[in-house]
UniProtKB/TrEMBL annotation:
Source organism superkingdom: Bacteria
Family per record: Belongs to the FPP/GGPP synthase family.
Keywords: Isoprene biosynthesis, Magnesium, Metal-binding, Transferase
Molecular function (Gene Ontology), one example: dimethylallyltranstransferase activity
EC number: 2.5.1.1, 2.5.1.10
Name used for this protein in its record: Farnesyl diphosphate synthase
């Protein structure tokens, strides 16, 4: 697949995804809650997690309706986590996706409620009355819940907050980032795979791909935090360094962090080669986009 074909696939997938998400996030939730929810999740972001769901589903020949619902649900979880992480009691950030953070735009209480509502909506989206078999609903909910909870995103954020001003070794840093960022990206891949008849071999190899990609994403994030400005990033640059948080750059150094990102990309592609699937080109090119991105 060439770059133009990939770009066309990305654009078509994102157009369908944005339309589906727009339909699912209610504008009419009471007392302005719907407005805050839509502000937080619509019309911004890289949408990497939904693309991973859709690409993984396509690779295994899965059900497109279930995959689109899964793509929306994982983005809702991601968006809720950003709303909460940006609040003054957590990372205290004022810019996200090139605009004021949700608590700046709507106040802290409304932002907290918007995050809560998006988290609940994510699981509502996965459990429609028709269109997704109950067993698949349960599998998708399990994958998403485990990635967002104490062993995943929430646990990673807890470690992150507890590590401010501390020196971490690479093993501990890797575990923190695996939980905080990597597991949800891996779950995106696995949710897409769950929508089709993936073999045990393919499922394990896709899990390995997701793990390598998830860590690569965070390594690149740490690199960009010290090499790009806020305008390019769409969020406050140098935030981790200013907050004295451990990162791959602070632990390994910039060049070693760059080398690690390349190594992880190679590991992700090796895992794809081990799937035995006929066409994993979308997933392979998404790995390239993660490592080569500038924001």
């Amino acid at each position: 697949m060439n770059a133009q074909d990939f770009d066309r696939w990305v654009q078509a997938s994102l157009n369908a995804f944005e339309a589906a998400l727009d339909d699912l996030v209610p504008a009419g939730a009471p007392a302005g809650l719907g407005e805050a929810m839509r502000y937080a999740v619509l019309g911004g972001g890289k949408r990497l997690r939904p693309l991973l769901v859709l690409a993984s589903c396509a690779a295994v020949g899965g059900d497109s309706f279930a995959a689109m619902r899964a793509a929306c649900s994982v983005e809702l979880i991601h968006a809720y986590s950003l709303v909460h992480d940006d609040m003054p009691c957590m990372d205290d950030d004022v810019m996200r996706r090139g605009k004021p953070t949700t608590h700046v735009a709507f106040g802290e209480a409304q932002a907290m409620l918007a995050g809560d509502a998006m988290q609940a909506l994510a699981f509502e989206v996965l459990t429609p009355d028709t269109g997704i078999a109950p067993a698949l609903q349960a599998r998708l909910c399990s994958l998403l819940a485990r990635s967002a909870g104490h062993d995943g995103m929430a646990g990673g954020q807890a470690i992150d907050l507890a590590s401010i001003g501390k020196q971490l070794d690479e093993v501990t840093l890797r575990d923190m980032h695996r939980r905080k960022t990597g597991v949800l990206l891996q779950a995106s891949v696995m949710m897409g795979a769950a929508c089709g008849p993936a073999s045990t071999q393919a499922t394990q190899a896709l899990a390995d791909y997701g793990a390598a990609l998830g860590l690569a994403f965070q390594v690149v994030d740490d690199i960009l935090d010290v090499t790009q400005d806020s305008t390019v990033l769409g969020k406050t640059a140098g935030k981790d360094q200013d907050a004295n948080k451990p990162t791959y750059v602070s632990v390994l150094g910039l060049e070693a962090a760059r080398a690690l990102a390349q190594q992880l990309r190679a590991e992700a592609k090796a895992a794809l080669a081990a799937t035995g699937l006929a066409d994993v080109s979308h997933l392979s090119l998404l790995a390239d986009s993660v490592v080569e991105r500038d924001n």
